[in-house]
Amino acid sequence: MTGPVVVDCEDVAWFRDAAEMPSAARGAAATLARRIGLDGYRSSEVALAVSEAATNLQRHARDGALLLRVLRTPDRAGVEFVTVDTGPGIADVEAALSDGVSSAGTLGIGLGAVARLADAFDIHSLPGKGTVMAAQFWAREAGDGPTGGTTSVASGLTRPISGETSCGDAWAVRIDEGGPETSRSSSSDAGRGGAYGTRSPGLLGSGPATPGTRSSAGSGRSSASSEPAVLVVLCDGLGHGPLAALAAEAAVTAFRRSAARHPEPLLRDIHGALRGTRGGAVAVARIEPARGRVLYCGIGNVSGVLLGPDSRNGLLSAPGIVGSQMRSLRTFELPWKPGGALIMHSDGLTERWNADAMPGLLRHTPAVMAGQLLREAGVRRDDAGVVVVKGDW
């Protein structure tokens, strides 16, 4: 069994203006592909695929938007685009991906060709509601077929409030490779225990937490964790605009730099890093596949949900502002079930989304899942951020 793999995402731009989207997105995609080192031929393929996707949104979709971003692993970089629209949806996705079918109904290359040009491709369409599509492009020789891309266990999306270009929501994921707990503990761990609690399954925010016992997994002092784990953070900087984005960026930077390995000490490190900023709502989770559990600790209006094929369990956050007013922390534990996903999102997405309204959601990649949640639950009067962790590793 291989360990979890994470691909870092660097959002570049959302394209929303239908009139200018195809030309603007195509030019930006070609420039971005060349900037990260893709050769001229591959860069032109990226531009062609992005142009087709953008033209499809322009001609057929309602409220269509295209996100262009960079993907990075330790040894290479790629380009990804994600499209989100609110309808009308595609009644027959397989037919739309067939050769000779143009998504624009004209001389376009068609979605099937976009899928072949991409190294990884996923699409989820809900007739009457909307479509989300994601495609990755990595370096490859002319004439070669798709490489399969790099499958990440986590992906997310952020979208600024209407009228802004800076987003005050940010997320990040990293892998804890395992090893003795004390070998990488941060100074903020020392001498601070963590009270764990468990909740009964239920709807988001429902049900009380039951008192837990002090655990070395929270204090970082004596337990050992030899198996890899996934750590994820989501920050919603207070307000919106550049100052909120500055707070969110500080939270992500602290998360990446911290030697802490569990939610509570990570939140303490982030709390210190956010002093002097606006502060924000922050949640941190640790997923331990080998132990079959998720540990979660949050402050403020960040929602956490463990979504399974037949279940939805909410994860509680305490009131407060990280960087300003952070009360005593409590980490909650729930079982990690195969086939499920951890979803964390800011209050730029309403909590009232229903997975049953998005049939087949769990069969798709984290990027497409995040796009569907943004489409289904996102609001335009606030920054929005959502991250999804999913994998049967």
Report on the structure:
This is Serine/threonine protein kinase. GO terms for molecular function: protein serine/threonine kinase activity. InterPro entries: HATPase_C_sf (IPR036890), HATPase_dom (IPR003594), PPM-type-like_dom_sf (IPR036457), PPM-type_phosphatase-like_dom (IPR001932), Ptase_RsbX (IPR039248). It comes from Streptomyces violaceoruber. With 393 residues, this protein is of the alpha+beta class. The chain contains eight helices and 21 strands. The protein has two domains: 8-152, Histidine kinase-like ATPase, C-terminal domain (Heat Shock Protein 90); 159-390, Phosphatase 2c, domain 1 (4-Layer Sandwich), CATH 3.60.40.10. The chain has helices at 21-35, 40-60, 93-96, 110-117, 216-219, 242-257, 263-274, 366-377, and strands at residues 8-15, 65-72, 77-84, 120-126, 130-137, 154-159, 169-176, 179-180, 194-198, 214-215, 224-225, 229-237, 280-288, 293-299, 302-308, 311-315, 320-321, 325-326, 331-335, 341-346, 384-390. Residues 103-107 and 182-224 have low confidence and may be disordered.
